[in-house]
Write a structure and sequence with these properties.
alpha/beta, Aspartate Aminotransferase, domain 2, Aspartate Aminotransferase, domain 1, globular, binds pyridoxal-5'-phosphate
Length: about 425
């Protein structure tokens, strides 16, 4: 397959590796474990180091198995280029560290994955200034901008309370102001949503979640959509300006993020993630169906105080979500009424497993305030809309009827 025809999402992923020659006609890109790459002519080694010739230098900065995965993600996101990292957090941290300077300002959604929230506190302490804004409303984001704002950062659907960012309007605002717009697409996955369609400059994916999909490998990525004009970004180091402007951002993130900070993805993990990605459409499609069925059932039950899922009409951003996304994903959260202990409820589940991950094939449940949001304390939790009894459910691909029965019997007991 070496034509320029546009195929569907899954066909494209399945046949991606074959667009470049693979040793022995192997149908999977092999796992290249070599750290060093040898050259017959020492001048070629120098040319690769100087960026005059494509090739590999040292495993920390790139690896053929990882490149094959990067190419797949670029296609999924319809982007220009992708850089993979050891984890989703390594990708976010690398982008931020590579692109921010002392005195720069960031506007971040206030509704965030807990570890990203914690990263912003570190960034704040290191000299850049981070403001949190209610990203469900573009006016709040606009009000938070200052002349020093370099980056606006949002999640598509926030983990774990499922607020939906006003993605398209924030995109327009950033484009007008020349601000770098970073969208964490983990909760939707490129199967349900491409942030490029709302003018995102960079797209983050925690590959650990829906893309790998089996909870057996960690990984993260950043994709340059090609929409941002890097000549407007003041912090590009001169040495990367010898490339075409479209490559400035990627060159700096790759060099600083992988070479200097070293959060590189290993080839074995890249292989697991690439194999997992082949079935993303099948898995995510089924997870969406299961999540909708479970959320609907729980919302109708009088023992439940609240269910947060953008697929439900009661969700404050339901219309926005159905406008933006093909479906609303496999994650929802809910609150039990007073009198039902959330630990007792979780312990009565036979299929839902108390565990901290999401986008797995199995259904995973977690009491948010007592685990992943424990460190931030009750006040910050309240500000982020995290109830003390909030249970996050990452819905798997089990048979729908089995899940409905399980979540229902745990209430009855
Ligand atoms: C899990 C997650 C991350 C971090 O990914 P890791 O691979 O666990 O480091 C970032 N953003 C969101 C929205 C996530 O759910």
């Amino acid at each position: 397959m070496n034509d320029s025809k546009k195929y569907g999402f899954t066909t494209t992923i399945l046949h991606s590796d074959r667009q470049k020659p693979i040793e022995h006609g192997s149908l999977h890109k092999p796992i290249h474990t070599s750290v060093a790459f040898g050259y017959k002519d020492a001048r070629d080694l120098a040319a690769v180091f100087q960026g005059r010739q494509p090739g590999y230098r040292y495993g920390r900065q790139g690896n053929p198995t990882v490149t094959a995965l990067e190419d797949k993600i670029t296609k999924m996101e319809d982007g220009n280029a992708t850089i993979c990292f050891a984890t989703g957090m390594a990708a976010i941290a690398a982008v931020v560290q590579a692109l921010l300077r002392n005195g720069d300002h960031v506007v971040s959604s206030a509704f965030l994955f807990g570890n990203t929230n914690s990263l912003w506190q570190t960034v704040n302490a290191q000299g850049a200034d981070v403001s949190m804004a209610d990203a469900t409303d573009v006016a709040q984001v606009e009000a938070a901008l200052t002349p020093a704002t370099r980056i606006v950062f949002v999640e598509t659907i926030a983990n774990p309370r499922t607020q939906v960012a006003d993605l398209a309007r924030i995109g327009r605002l950033c484009r007008e102001r020349g601000i770098l717009y970073i969208v964490d697409n983990t909760m939707t996955s490129p199967y349900l949503f491409q942030p490029k369609t709302v003018d995102a400059s960079l797209v983050i994916n925690a590959l650990t979640k829906s893309i790998g999909g089996h909870g057996n490998a960690l990984g993260g990525s950043v994709t340059d959509t090609g929409l941002y004009d890097w000549t407007r970004y003041p912090n590009i180091v001169d040495s990367y300006k010898r490339f075409a402007p479209a490559q400035w951002g990627v060159a700096q993130i790759r060099a600083k993020g992988l070479r200097d900070f070293g959060g590189s993805l290993g080839p074995e993990a890249a292989h697991h993630l690439a194999v997992g990605a082949e079935t993303m459409a099948l898995r995510v499609g089924r997870e969406c169906v299961n999540a909708m069925a479970l959320a609907t059932m729980l919302e109708a039950d009088e023992r439940i105080a609240a269910v947060h899922y953008p697929g439900l009409q009661s969700h404050p951003q339901h219309a926005l979500a159905t406008d933006l996304f093909d479906a609303c994903g496999g994650l929802f959260s809910f609150e039990l009424k007073d009198g039902i202990d959330c630990f007792d409820y979780l312990n009565r589940l036979k299929l839902g497993i108390p565990a901290s991950n999401l986008g797995d094939t199995r259904t995973l449940v977690i009491p948010v305030a007592h685990t992943i949001f424990y460190e931030m304390g009750p006040e910050r939790r309240a500000r982020m809309g995290i109830a003390e009894s909030l249970i996050r459910v990452s819905v798997g691909i089990e048979d729908t009827a089995d899940l409905l029965e399980d979540f229902s019997q745990a209430l009855d007991a």
